[in-house]
Amino acid sequence: MIDRYHLRYFLAVVDTGNFSRAAAACNVAQPTLSVGIARLEASLGRTLFNRTNRRVALTEAGAGLLAHARAIESGFAAAERAVTGAAAAPLLRLGVLTTIPRHAIERWLAARSGDRVELVEGNERDLRARLARGRIDAALTILRDGDDRGAGQHLLTEGYALAIGSTHPLAGRASLSAEEIAHEPMIVRRHCEMLSETSRFFTARGVRPFFPARTTSDDRALSHVRARLGITVMPESFHADGVARVPLADFDASRDVGLVFAAHAPPDAALVTGLREALTYSRSSRT
């Protein structure tokens, strides 16, 4: 027999990534949670987690149980609200790629209504892993060729351009070639999904710039650019006071940004529409 608390323990381990954090989330001691998981596995006759010293991962049986466990827990919560008369307060766990502009997320958050939101930032690989394990409901990330058309909703296609301090002598140019900026210091955005392609583009043209800063923060990269510490290559939707965006000649790379939904979460049309508007506004505005 499966009790509700067994499923709550199971979901807590999935959502937090380990038994210690799951026990804290459930307000029980870790041995108590471990016993509950063991009883759930015994009742099902299947191992649900692969346990190592560093991580806990779902087995095939655990992944199969996950969607059902979420549906059952959601049903329990709905029944409790119906009896008590409490208003529903669903939680949207949204993964956000670190290279999505901050002001796009701000605009979406300001316009949204209804759901409580938990934002989980990460790189593309991390967000994909969280989706697969059911730790987030959807991810605002880059769409890839293998994405299922039902689960992946396209929001925006954009290219990349140079970011240059607005007082820089080259800031007013209509475009710049790699050779024209060969002697310009360049800020490295270490988290950029196009970092390898950008490096190859410049290397192929004999450009090996000096790197005065390496950062995983786009806000900091823009600050460095504004202060004329260096220039950088960023998606077109990034804009900031004191920063000019200038096309980089012959650099034709682009990215498809979209929403990818987890297996347990059906596509949400309102979420798709709201984020598409925020991203489109972000690309077209100058802040």
TrEMBL record:
The keyword Transcription applies. InterPro entries: LysR_HTH_N, LysR_subst-bd, WH-like_DNA-bd_sf, WH_DNA-bd_sf. GO terms for molecular function: DNA binding; DNA-binding transcription factor activity. Keywords: DNA-binding, Transcription, Transcription regulation. Residues 2-59 form the HTH lysR-type domain. Transmembrane segments: none annotated. PROSITE patterns: HTH_LYSR (PS50931). GO terms for cellular component: protein-DNA complex. Belongs to the LysR transcriptional regulatory family. This is DNA-binding transcriptional LysR family regulator.
